[in-house]
Amino acid sequence: MNLYPILRPALFSLDPELAHHVTLKLLKFTEKTGLSELSKASSDNKHVTVMGLSFKNPVGLAAGLDKNGDYIDALAALGFGFLEIGTVTPRPQPGNPKPRLFRLPEHEAIINRMGFNNKGVEHLLKQVKKANYQGVLGINIGKNFDTPIKNATDDYLIGLRKSYELASYITLNISSPNTKNLRQLQQGDEIKNLLSSLKEEQLILQQTHEKYTPLVVKIAPDLNDSEIMHIAKLLLEFEIDGVIATNTTVSRETVQGHLHAEEIGGLSGAPVKDQSTYVVAGLSAEFNGKLPIIAAGGILSGQDAKDKLAAGASLVQVYSGLVYRGPQLIEDILRIL
Q1: Tell me: the pLDDT tens digits for 265-274?
Q2: Separation between Cα atoms, residue 259 and residue 268, nearest integer Å
Q3: Taking the CB of residue 93, how many other CB atoms lie within 10 A of it?
Q4: Is the confidence at residue 1, as pLDDT, over 80?
Q5: Closest CA to 85 of 53, 128, 49
Q6: 70: part of which helix (H) or strand (E)?
Q7: Is 176 a catalytic residue?
Q8: What Å distances lie between residue 68 and 27, 71, 152, 269, 336, CA to CA?
Q9: Cα–Cα dist 139/86, whole Å
Q10: Which of 36, 39, 176, 268 is catalytic?
Q11: pTM of the predicted structure, to 2 decimals
Q12: For 124-144, how does the pLDDT look when each residue is reduced to its tens digit (9 = 90+)?
């Protein structure tokens, strides 16, 4: 039973950030009362193995929806094959000033400039320990806004060390447009230094914990062909375990003229679909099967997800699509796959 079309007008009448919190509270209520079983996607017969991990199905939740790990069991009850929580930083931080979240319904899009608002990695790990969820759980890590870019690696190392034991995989978010200068980490020596340090630490942690936790990098859609090629070569060179393509875009080409088009932040949803798929295809051509791609960006239907897999992805993640389609989107994707 799909209740979301009934609830959506009421949610869309609220401030977007308030609606976000109300939705999560509703999900928690439905999970606690068993009502989520009424709309749960039939998801247990599409197992895939990626990065040595066994996924119940290839449809995951993208980072950003549950930054603090407060709603793990409620989100798992919707039928996802895996969850990614965060982005989390070493220290708690409030994020950017409000308003910082905007809907563009005509374009089925969202602009956000949240700025890694979160309660810090220690809180997130407490929530992970309390959750009953046993599936694949990614933890997405970033740097604090006041950590100088030259010291960014230190923050990622803290996140890696603290999250390593509890995470199924760890994502390095170096592509959010909402933390000053963060995207510099995708360029030149910055990315080499980061990947080298994190890979070295991953192998040390593997020995310490007797467990291998894959390392994934999340990249931007705003990359040209040479930048895609450059990042692909570095990911292979440093033996990173996977890549998420892509984060939000700073481009406004597809939403020009909209009331919120000039708002600063990352644009997600339908307008980023084609560019995100282009990056997936470019990476796939460079990897030639050597590295798995998790596709995110503009997935609002089963066909959108199918297109990402056809472009070379092994898994898909959704977030903005849930805002516009609700949990039914998971079922729609699984049906067409």
Answers
A1: 999 999 999 9
A2: 16
A3: 18
A4: no
A5: 128
A6: none
A7: yes
A8: 15, 8, 21, 22, 32
A9: 6
A10: 176
A11: 0.97
A12: 999 999 999 999 999 999 999
